[in-house]
Amino acid sequence: MSLVLTYLLKFLPFLSWARQTTPQSVRQDAVAGITGAIIVLPQGVAYALIAGLPPEYGLYAAIVPAIVAALFGSSWHLISGPTAALSIVVFTTISPLAEVGSSDYISLVLTLTLLAGLFQLILSLVRMGSLVNFVSHSVVVGFTAGAAVVIATSQIKNALGLDVPSSGHFILNWVAVADNILATHLPSFFIATLTLITLIGVKRWRKSWPNMLIAMVVGSLATQLLLLTSWLGASDIALVGEIPSQLPPLSAPLMSWDLLRQLAPGAMALGLLGLVEAVSIARSVATRSGQQIHGNQEFIGQAMSNILGSFSSSYATSGSFTRTGVNYEAGAKSPLAALFAALFLAIIVLLFAPLAAYITLPSMAAILLMVSWNLIDGHHIKIIYRAGKSETMVFSVTFTATLLLPMEFAIYLGVLLSLVLYLRRTSKPNITVLASSKGAKMLVDAKKTGMPECEAIKIIRIDGSIFFGAVDYVQTALMSIPQKHVLIVASGINFIDLAGTALLANEAKRLAAKGGGLYLCNLNGTVIKPIIRNGHIKTIGKRNMFATKALALSAIDTKLSGHSCSGCENR
């Protein structure tokens, strides 16, 4: 029975968190869902326009994919839906192939979405979810902080009521705001400020209350009251506008070999970008919630959401940074919040579209500004700066790149830098010079203890990996040793590849030609097996490999004919 349950939880992960729901958690998820549904209204429309699609497709992409990703993913708080980065990739991939906004264009977008989902599914089936491990904590924190600043920057114009285009670029947005700051629309600024004060006040004095939802209602009601006054310009406060009253219709992506060949490169880029976005966002929230993210399960959730979404008029989706942040801050306890958000969005779209038109953009801008502030993890940023130059560099580069480059490239750059720094560290394994102590019964760190080294034999311990990237460093260290006899204590070698075993064999030859020898002791399976497998056991010599340091020193002492260094009491 337990085996059956294990398999069920593996393929149907929602069974795990569904059993842990309580009436209180359901209420909290429902409140978070309502907030998320309202947040996605203007966001979905905007992203659809970026992708070159009719506005309603941005809303369709926030219903079915959000439900599927929540059911089959691993994150408690990740909300899937349309994103700015994916929308741009969709537009640049399909716009050369069909007229933007046409029926052919929409069909190609749905086909691209299906291919991206299938590519993601293949990655999950070959268990490539471990790729998430290459996104270091410093990358996640840097990406989170940078994205928070970008989101806040994009909302400044709405909070100030400025009629400036959104360039999607951090610097250009600030330049546009600075150039038009004198044109600030005071009624819009008043609504945004009132909403922000309400947010802070409710969160401080009534923590259990849904502060975002209350602030949104207060902002919308205040806008209607301003319209009754004689304040000049109150009628120009921007509203969300009416939402199309239609649920996502069924759709059929086009399929042909020529089309698949044309769209395959774009689908792979779209699929990879979607996975990086989703897993990075899931991990960034998990660092705050204390949850463990299963990368491969998250791959499956994103793949299924895109595959099924392509048959329900949804274009490519991934984890939404803004909606996930709102979901977490609104008190969501489980993926049930995503289901509620999709359900409430469907109800709003179907029944209450006219009422949704009264939501003001300045109020939503204030809420997103607060979400952005909360996403900047000052505590972990301080820890990163104390951790050292490498972690600080990874964080700083990722943060800066997120501001200046498209977000997907910022993540790639952060991951690449993390790998480069990791390889740099592992390419220089720690080499400690040892000396005998207490009648040659112990080996101690010669530098720390001040014990004299033997004139006839060099004893070293290597801690780390001896792989192709570290061979040059280790070889340089070995060739600088003046003694003809070298003993390597190998207990700290955790990995060795073909280049590493070849290095040991070449050193054994070199020292033997000088009348000395290379000796290895305290070897474990990770060292012995590669030496045998790579055919270097004969060159190094079985007689030069010892199970313990004592056996090695005794055998070497015999070879040295009882050599004793001048002034040394040990042989």
Describe the protein's architecture and organization:
With 571 residues, the chain is of the alpha/beta class. Helices cover 61% and strands 7% of the residues. The protein contains 26 helices and 9 strands. It has helices spanning 2-11, 14-18, 23-50, 56-60, 64-72, 84-94, 103-125, 137-160, 170-179, 186-205, 211-226, 257-289, 295-309, 321-329, 336-350, 353-356, 361-375, 378-387, 389-404, 407-426, 446-449, 471-479, 498-513, 525-533, 537-540, 549-559, and strands at residues 80-81, 318-319, 430-437, 442-445, 457-466, 485-489, 493-496, 517-521, 545-546. The strands form 2 sheets. Strands 3, 4, 5, 6, 7, 8 and 9 form a 7-stranded mixed sheet that branches. α22 links the parallel β5 and β6. α22 (471-479) packs parallel to α23. The protein is elongated. It starts with a helix and ends in a 12-residue tail after the last helix.
Label this structure with key terms:
alpha/beta; 571 residues; elongated; seven-stranded mixed sheet
End-to-end C-alpha gap: 66 Å
Number of helices: 26
Classify the helix fraction into a percent range.
55-70%
Oligomer designation: single chain
User: Major sheet: size, sense and barrel closure?
Assistant: 7 strands, mixed
Radius of gyration: 31 Å
Assess the beta-strand content as a share of residues: 5-15%
* Average pLDDT over all residues: 83
What is the global morphology? Answer: elongated
Uncertain runs are none
